[in-house]
Amino acid sequence: MDRRNFIGASLASLAAGAAKAAVPTVGKKGTLLMNRIAPSISQLHIADLDGSNERQLLADTKFEYNGALSPKGDWVVFTSERVADGQSDIFRARPDGTGLQPLVVTPAMDDAGVLSPDGTKLAFVSTRNPTAANEGRANIWVLDIPTGKLKQLTGTPSVHGESGLPDGYFRPQWSPDGQWIAFSTDRNTRWTGHHGGAGWEHTQELSIYRIRPDGTGLTKVASRPGYCLGSPKWSPDGRHIVFYEMTVEATWGARRPNFIGKAPSQIVSVELATGERTIHTNGDDLKLQPQFLSNKEIGYLVKYGPQEGLHYTSDRAPLLRNLRSPNWTRDGKSVIYEKVSFQPIRPMFKPLYGWDKAWDYRHMDVFPIMSRDGWLVYTEKQLGNSSIYIMRPDGSGKQKVFESSGHGLDLAKVKFGLAGAFQPSWSGDGQWIVFGLGYWFTERSTETAAIWRVRRDGTGAEQLTDGTIHSGFPSVDPANPNRIVFRVWSEKEKGLRIMDLSTRQITVLTEGFDNLPGWSPNGRWIVFTRKRTDGNFDIYTIHPDGSNLRRVTTHESSDGHAVWSYDNQIMWSGSQHGFRDEAALYEMTFQQYGQIYIMNADGSNKRMLTDSKWEDSMPILVPNH
User: Fold this and answer.
1) Which is nearest to 540 in space by CA: 572, 583, 494, 567?
2) Which CATH number is 522's domain given?
3) Does the N-terminal peptide bond of residue 24 adopt cis geometry, omega within 30 degrees of 0?
4) Where would one find the signal peptide in this protein (predicted)?
5) pLDDT in tens, 305-319
6) Distance between CA atoms of 267 and 249, rounded to whole angstroms?
7) Count of structural domains, the chain
8) Of the candidates 341, 363, 382, which is a domain's last residue?
């Protein structure tokens, strides 16, 4: 499993973020530190079609996206995280940026709002649900603005997909007469990893449907097995719906800038009366989010590459500019869009929205783990060096204990997040830090990695495995600093191994596609991720002697990156609540809808800790005591 590379911020900005840490937190149990893969900046802009007269939509911009002008031209509806980082709500403002008003503000993920032609109703996507079986899934709702009355259109007893499979509903759009809402959905598809099912992160198959605003009349508009059809928009005369179309596998490359030219898509429309398809484009560009400017002209976004920007099916000149989520105004003279960036990086300890009110949520770099004497060790991946650091939970005392460069690693791959010093682990006595050093993820098939350790003061670094078998992701027995568990990977040998550092003897714990082991604080269990023979990724636990193997997650979606909490619960990143948006629209991310969950060690009492639109992972609970 890959992780997006954060590059380019200064050490000063990281230190400034650390200085804002607030642990312990008054009135809370403590702090939940976690990693979030999402842009750090997103701002709405409006400009003429040639790019001139560009201006920022809101003077008081926070983190806004998915802006859309109302059919009457009197409001811009958009999603904002101004309440808190990661908490997406729906607001509106006048086109000149004044009159900011909240429309939908809840702890759920609320997104992709659009006003009806008469301006009285709002269709939007939300993860709220009054039924526990569908709670946390993306569904389409309609808000009657004058009365505040809500109507759920999808995820209801009469409109839902097969249980246990993807069942999300995205990007609603009103018909010009206000009688229908078109949308994309992955209902009744399968959980499929990238690279033909081999990967942990999922691809996405979408079809286009429409439904009446009262929840009746569900009708399939367009579908193509093995393809993703997304972001539907109506023609002004209401006779056609346009959308982008790509293979299911291409939805993986569409959120990876290193796949430029390898994830093509086309702009397609369908005539509602006859079902006749028209393909409007060709070539290898990644083309997304089309919209009719008239009954004959279509504008669309090219994402990534030298042609990135706005293009048209007419002879209108393109606007080559780095932008996202275009929405053309009805008069065809202007376009609203967002500018997103991962720079500067999201600061360490930046406050995040907390869904569990007993804990204070904050942002953290990757692979954090706490020593018994209260020090955090982690991989500093955000700055692109993937070295090992330690510090207090309040950010003080930060020091580098191992530099990944100087050990023969390809610096370009280190900066891209494919190499470095990953998953540090404290010895029980707090004197040593064990970690993996080498190449990771897709590189493991052709490159090497080994287990290393270093003293907490940065001295005594030594390699513990010889590198003949790719070895990584270690964890130390809390009761025995000379015993570690780690995973190996080669054509002939896979699984978890336990090493006795006093003798360097290695014993086999498991065999197969097992990864990311972690020793429980009480020393009784080792948790890990297993890729089963059916292609599903699940969380397992096992005793260190190889007995009592137990599967603790069973959902058909992917579960992974499991870690222990201080009180011997298991936290992990999962995807059973499905996509929160169309996968191809995300930026530089992997499992773009991964949420953090927690459960008892035996797999009981599973519950969500995050409900964001983004990829959340690698949590650690830091109690006030």
Assistant:
1) 572
2) 2.130.10.10
3) yes
4) 1-21
5) 999 999 999 999 999
6) 17
7) 2
8) 341
